[in-house]
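Agenda item 2: zinc ion complex prediction
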Amino acid sequence: MSYNREDYIRIKAEFSQKYLRAQNRATERRAELYAAIPEVRKLDGMLSQTGMEIMAVIRGGKDTEEQIAAIRQRNRELLAKRAELLREHGYPEDYSDVQYDCDKCGDTGFVNTKMCDCMKRALIAAGYESSGLGALIRTQSFDNFSLDYYRVGGANYDAMRRAAEGLRRFAESFDRTAYANYLLIGGTGLGKTHLSTAVAKTVIERGFDVLYVSAVGMISDFEAKRFNDGNGMKHDPDRYADAELLIIDDLGTEVSNQFTLSCLYDLLNTRINNRRCTFINTNLAFRELEARYNERITSRLLGEYSPILFSGTDIRRQKIQRVK
Ligand SMILES: Nc1ncnc2c1ncn2[C@@H]1O[C@H](COP(=O)(O)OP(=O)(O)OP(=O)(O)O)[C@@H](O)[C@H]1O
Ligand SMILES: [Mg+2]
Ligand SMILES: [Zn+2]
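Presented output:
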């Protein structure tokens, strides 16, 4: 697992703050108790001696077990007294205990050296955020991807089933060594975005850094970086090169000129060289890709990407018709 670096730094800082807040809240509450019930301060003073008393007994080395049992017994009595005092004054017993959001890790994010589930969850939520998937993450997943839409005219059901199953396996087994590139080709409304979003979601949940972007959005970030000091950038283009999975949606809808072609070429080439997985979705057929992009780009798309041909009848329309 190698979450997005910025997310990781931010979440770690948030956990440190959470931890300190919990400590401070407990300190404040303790002060409040001392002001309201002065006897509690005395009890706490005595309770805080317990450890040292036990140490002294151990060092003394005589009748240790009996003495320790006695200290423990007194400790229990002091605690009971304290609890009773608090109750009498209308406070819950644990009023000044440190109350963490997560008892497992005490809001440190780690249990021994292992990352706690609460921190993993926070990182996944941050991963959704920073992936650029926005609302798609909530509406498109493998769970609501149905093959039924490919039973109608024009669809190659078996090919779509193989594609969906293959991508699901790819996503569910994604790890550091994963390397595959896919070119999702087909007409509008056939599920390219849906299926690639489902892959993205699964890979984020496995703890990897995923970036989803439209070709138009990506080019606009490259332009902002190159011509406008980065102003208005949604994602730094460096992240396009680094993300462990990059999904470029709607290739072919961006403007095409020398600059955009060279950005695209550099990006695809860098990712291939670094063995980073990339998905590209497009409405353009091979021949149209060849006409639009230069040889260096198309030869990479043809040579390094596995094509997945989407077929069928516009699912947006099928859904509307089913509702009617
Ligand atoms: N197999 C499917 N099961 C359920 N819903 C689907 C399926 N495929 C697509 N959809 C839904 O149909 C709509 C269109 O799908 P999607 O956006 O993935 O198409 P697309 O191939 O990306 O089209 P475009 O080329 O226009 O971008 C979306 O709302 C999507 O959630
Ligand atoms: Mg789409
Ligand atoms: Zn935790």
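Discussion summary: Residues 5-36 form the longest helix (32 residues).
Owner for follow-up: CH.
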